[in-house]
Amino acid sequence: MYNNTLQTLNTTTLGVTQNYMNCNKSDDFKYPLYSSVFSLVFVVGLFFNMVAVYIFGCTLKLRNETTTYMMNLVVSDSLFVLSLPFRIVYFIKREWLFGSVLCKISVALFYTNMYGSILFLTCISVDRFLAIVYPFRSQNIRTRRNAKLACCTVWVMVLSGSIPTGFLLDTTSPRNANSSSNFCFENYSKKQWKSELSKVVVFIETVGFIIPLLVNVFCSVTVLRTLRKPQTISRGGNLNKVKILRMILVHLLIFCFCFIPYNVNLIFYALVRSNVLKGCYAEYVVRTIYPIALCIAVTNCCFDPVIYYFTSETIQSSIKRKSTVWHNGAKLLDRLNMDSTQSSPNTKTKSQTLRSLRSNMFVNESTV
């Protein structure tokens, strides 16, 4: 009887241990999810960021401290978008084909984009806070020179975290002992999580997420409280108040939507991988949420151009003027082409008029 009970207990203990050791770690659903979402982000993000580059580089005449932060944000987003095809191929093939160096660069660009975006958006939020809460006292602070210094500081902070993450860690690992195919930016060992990655997560979460999140919330709440004061309404007008409220809402929604799910889950993911948080259920939850949160996070390079539009009246005016020029020019060209098909006398004069109209459109566009 005693032996049977002892054997049952041993079998139960062994079964629990085996169940714990053999936790269901299958998260293969992430590969089709990643390949689909990243492909969409690449197409949309490339288009929006190329438009942003064109506006900032070719049509935007007035540059200030806010556009300085935005231009740096465009650079960060564009670099990440251009690295997405390598990831897409990896998620489709489920094998890294481009060598260890490109894998390290891809990892570094991901963290550069995410935490660079967070910090540059925080700079925009602080700049708006100074402009509205302290409009006169902040005039000596809100300068293009100080904005450039702030951007340089952000780049130093971001690169000091992303480069070690990408280049000092062993970002590639073989799928198994008998295979020559490699993982990239995944499947880190628990030893690596305990010794190195947990420290990286603590650094990037504190400096790159928690502090900027608190700053963004503080600035937004303070600006909203300032806008409720009667003297603020009389100073700026009700229309400006509506615009600022819309700007803050868009900024805060995009910030929270893109970055909170991934960074909160990353903390729990690190705890699970470091064996601080144990249990199959905990591992199943964080492994399931992680790919979804990551897909949401990478969409920030598509949403950032929305912030450009709502934050800068200069950009709004530039886009409206350019769309007006092209719309009016297109209508005149269509009308001229219709007239030319209905009657064909004096063809030479009409062609000259057409060339003159196109030339005038080009001149009008260049002056926008």
Secondary structure class reads mainly alpha
Shape: globular
CATH architecture: Up-down Bundle
Mean pLDDT: 76
List unreliable stretches of 5+ residues. 5-21, 360-368
Distance between the termini: 93 Å
| Integer tally of domains | 1
Structural account:
There is one protein chain. The chain is mostly helical and 368 residues long. The protein has a single domain, classed as Rhodopsin 7-helix transmembrane proteins (Rhopdopsin 7-helix transmembrane proteins, Up-down Bundle), CATH 1.20.1070. It is built from twelve helices and two strands, in the order H-H-H-H-H-E-E-H-H-H-H-H-H-H. The protein has helices spanning 2-21, 30-59, 65-93, 99-133, 144-168, 190-227, 230-236, 238-273, 280-298, 300-311, 313-342, 347-366; strands spanning 172-174, 182-184. It has a two-stranded antiparallel ribbon with strand order 1-2. A hairpin with a 7-residue loop joins strand 1 (172-174) and strand 2 (182-184). Helix 2 packs parallel to helix 9 and helix 11 packs antiparallel against helix 12. Mean pLDDT is 76; it is low at 5-21 and 360-368. GO terms for molecular function: lysophosphatidic acid receptor activity. This is Lysophosphatidic acid receptor 6. It is a multi-pass membrane protein.
